[in-house]
Design brief:
2 strands, mainly alpha
């Protein structure tokens, strides 16, 4: 992966994580926050490369169930620009404070976990209001729109 993209993706991932000592972010939560910040979701490879780089730099920890949490240094870097950065500029403000990053090839996000989290985010539950279901289905190919009905 290109080092410039790795830094940018790592900064975005760091921005998606919830600060706090006992806070652990799920893949589904990360995908929804990433989508809000970057107006698009990361691929599984992008997410595992960014997580591997941040983990190798000791800025985050990754649990066995792939819940991510900030270390003390990760929380410190994430908190630096919070007073003046907007949602879309937050990752670039964080990126300026990141140490040199190197990917960790041993970090592997299970495909099933990623796909399950992505599907849960993209498909609203049956109890969701009709307008919300329509809004979330908008932009999907017509053959996917009503596949669960």
């Amino acid at each position: 992966m290109d080092p410039a993209y790795l830094r940018s993706d790592a900064a975005t991932l760091l921005a998606t994580l919830t600060p706090g000592k006992k806070r652990r972010s799920t893949i589904r939560g990360i995908l929804s926050t990433w989508d809000m910040i970057q107006v698009g979701m990361p691929s599984r490879r992008t997410l595992e490369a960014a997580a591997g780089a941040l983990s190798a730099a000791r800025l985050i920890t990754i649990d066995d169930d792939w819940r991510l949490s900030l270390t003390a240094e990760g929380a410190r870097i994430r908190a630096i620009p919070s007073g003046w950065a907007g949602m879309r500029t937050f990752p670039s403000a964080i990126e300026k404070h990141l140490p040199p990053l190197v990917g960790d090839p041993e970090v592997t996000l299970p495909a099933e976990l990623y796909e399950c989290a992505r599907d849960d985010y993209l498909r609203p539950r049956r109890g969701a209001p009709r307008w919300l279901r329509w809004f979330l289905e908008w932009g999907q190919p017509s053959w996917q729109r009503h596949s669960d009905r």
